[in-house]
Design goal:
alpha+beta; seven-stranded mixed β-sheet; four-stranded antiparallel β-sheet; 18 strands; globular; binds flavin-adenine dinucleotide
Length: 603
């Protein structure tokens, strides 16, 4: 096959916040930039982000600073974060948000005209710059409007199927147009992966159809290392009813605005279990919690705003103990604030417009009058491609990663709002360093035979013939299995069984078949996604087996406590010489004394 080929200095894969920000920065460095995305420009998952972007602007509470944000991020991640990334993130996020404002983002405002900030779980002070509950939309709109004038070439509805290396360096990609199924090759001096998350490996998820772990699997297959794949975030509040909307996110902003969690007996159960590390910062009565949400600087946060991992487990505990709501979750009530605010209905509609419409349209619930039913949903992956903190280069030369597909900043648990700021801070860095790499390392030719072999592999499902497996039934079996066996609560026996099940699913995937032709064929696209989903599921499972403790998003019933030996290591996954997946422990570098002191000061 003769491939249509496009040549760039920097090729960015993914047009969410991280990819757009990387492309803008690379193009500002004067190199030729190509941007590829699987869906239409403007439809990346980032557009769904609701609550806000975390940055210590200190507009609402002047006690905030990069130091408090850094300490909050490290505490939230339970100290296995890449401290250098957490430091860069906390220091640079305010400039990235102000820059976004200068480029035209219209944030909600304080009464004196500055960017308004709201409370979110695990953040000591109101820190999330936001646009109602549609912050991701504004972020994407602004980056796109700004980016399209910078000469970036965009290739939409194109799925990258394989990275191509030349002499051990990232040299290009091969993939197919989703519309016509035609293959194309792209070459580049440097490649930035910004492909987002992998929530679609689970049955109940807030992630869009794009979240199939493509970047994680592309990097792994190319020999890059993955980091801490066991850390998957189960957001405490997803919709649970009706079944067709199960998993859709209910933003933490609801709790930030004063929403409370209740069990079926009307008990505010979050007061029953406050972790020691947060006791000093958590309200011990309902009145104090309410005052905090209304900006009283002398009040401490309500327990509903503890970290997501903890809140999700408390909800699970209530449900397991038979104190859940009728459809297997708990109640999230924002309507109660009418007892405290004269125009509660208007306030809720103004601050949470998407939530109001989401429940009205999808569940026939008026959240200004009735409580919502919510339960945990697979939301985010803290694990991802292992990168250098400053440059975002992976362990494969010339291959960079930023945003949700990269790992390090969040440790064992991400604080809400820290993803949008991560995209901006590390998207910019990835673009800058990729451009510099491409300048220093000329583009090299890719191996056409390798590109052809990858295309042949991708086309295989059309030749499966009799006895072919259906891609949707494999995908759904995988999602059910991961939800049940490597979900919010894990045990050795269940995860060992998951490995056995994964082998069976891999064997089935090898026989997957599709009908029809290559013109927009969702069955075929699903068949191709399977390899990525199976790869990331195995990485999650193997890492989760190796981490014999509970920390952040990773909770093991057989090891319910944190273990000191795991507090000083990360788990690194890579493809071994014989092609099998290997997980090894890597010590975390010693934190500099000045950062240790920052953490001590903020305890
Ligand atoms: C409902 C919801 C609400 C959220 N709210 C917030 C919030 O308020 N604050 C916050 O900080 N975080 C929030 N998050 C998390 C945050 O939105 C995501 O972590 C973040 O947007 C990921 O951005 P990204 O740029 O890394 O990837 P994405 O935005 O997921 O973009 C990935 C891009 O990669 C492309 N792509 C993927 N695979 C391929 C391939 N094989 N070939 C070509 N292109 C490919 C896709 O087409 C897409 O363009 C929320 C998440 C959800 C689900």
């Amino acid at each position: 096959m003769n491939f249509e080929t496009h040549d760039y200095d920097v090729l960015v894969i993914g047009a969410g916040g991280a990819g757009l920000r990387a492309a803008i920065e690379a193009s500002a460095a004067g190199v030729k930039v190509g941007l590829i995305c699987k869906s239409l420009l403007g439809k990346a998952h980032t557009v769904m982000a609701e609550g806000g972007v975390a940055a210590a602007l200190a507009n609402v509470d002047d006690r905030d600073s990069w130091k408090v944000h850094f300490a909050d991020t490290m505490r939230g991640g339970q100290y296995v974060n890449n401290w250098r990334m957490a430091e860069l993130h906390a220091k640079e996020a305010p400039d990235r948000v102000r820059e976004l404002e200068a480029w035209g983002a219209v944030f909600d405002r304080t009464s004196d005209g500055r960017i308004l900030q709201r409370n979110f779980g695990g953040h000591r002070y109101p820190r999330l710059a936001h646009v109602g509950d549609r912050t991701g939309l504004e972020l994407i709109r602004t980056l796109q409007d700004y980016g399209v004038h910078r000469g970036i070439s965009v290739h939409m509805e194109f799925t990258v199927a394989r990275l191509l290396l030349t002499d051990g360096r990232a040299a290009g990609v091969v993939g197919y147009e989703r519309e016509r199924g035609r293959f194309r090759v792209f070459t580049a001096g440097a490649i930035v992966l910004a492909t987002g998350g992998l929530g679609r490996a689970y049955k109940v998820t807030s992630n869009s159809w794009e979240g199939t772990g493509d970047g994680h699997a592309l990097a792994y297959d190319a020999g890059a290392e993955l980091l801490d794949m066991e850390f998957v975030q189960f957001h405490p509040t997803g919709m649970i009813w009706p079944p067709s909307v199960q998993g859709i996110l209910v933003t933490e902003g609801v709790r930030g605005e004063g929403g409370i969690l209740l069990n079926k007996d009307g008990r505010r159960f979050m007061f029953d279990d406050i972790p020691d590390a947060y006791r000093n910062q958590t309200a011990d009565n309902e009145d104090e919690g309410w005052r905090y949400t209304q900006g009283d600087k002398n009040a401490r946060r309500p327990p509903e705003l503890l970290t997501r991992d903890h809140v999700a487990r408390c909800i699970r505990r209530e449900v397991k103990a038979g104190r859940g709501s009728p459809h297997g979750g708990v109640f999230l009530d924002i309507a109660w604030i009418k007892k405290r605010l004269s125009d509660a209905e208007g306030h809720i509609k103004r601050k949470l417009p998407s939530m109001y419409h989401q429940f009205k349209e999808l569940a026939d619930i008026d959240i200004t009058k009735e409580p919502m039913e919510v339960g945990p949903t697979t939301h985010y992956v803290m694990g991802g491609i292992r990168v250098d903190a400053d440059s975002q280069m992976s362990t494969v030369p010339g291959l960079f990663a930023a945003g949700e597909c990269a790992a390090g900043i969040n440790g064992a648990n991400r604080l809400g709002g820290n993803s949008l700021s991560d995209l901006l801070v590390f998207g910019k860095r990835a673009g800058e360093y990729a451009a510099a790499f491409a300048r220093d390392n000329r583009r090299v030719a890719v191996n056409q035979a390798e590109a052809q072999a990858a295309a042949d592999e991708v086309l295989k499902p059309f030749d499966a013939g009799a006895g072919a497996e259906n891609p949707y039934s494999i995908q759904s079996a995988l999602q059910e299995m991961m939800q049940a066996q490597v979900g919010i609560v894990r045990t050795e026996a269940e995860m060992q069984q998951a490995l056995v099940d994964l082998d069976v699913l891999k064997a089935r995937a090898a026989k997957v078949g599709v009908t029809g032709n290559r013109d927009y064929n969702p069955g075929w696209h699903t068949a191709i996604d399977l390899h990525n989903l199976l790869t990331v599921s195995e990485a999650i499972t193997r890492s989760a087996i190796e981490r014999k403790e509970s920390r952040g998003g990773h909770f093991r019933e057989d090891y319910p406590d944190k273990a000191a030996e795991f507090g000083s290591i990360n788990l690194v996954t890579r493809k071994g010489a014989n092609g099998s997946m290997e997980v090894r422990r890597v010590p975390i570098l010693e934190m500099p004394a000045e950062l240790k002191q920052v953490i001590e000061e903020q305890r």
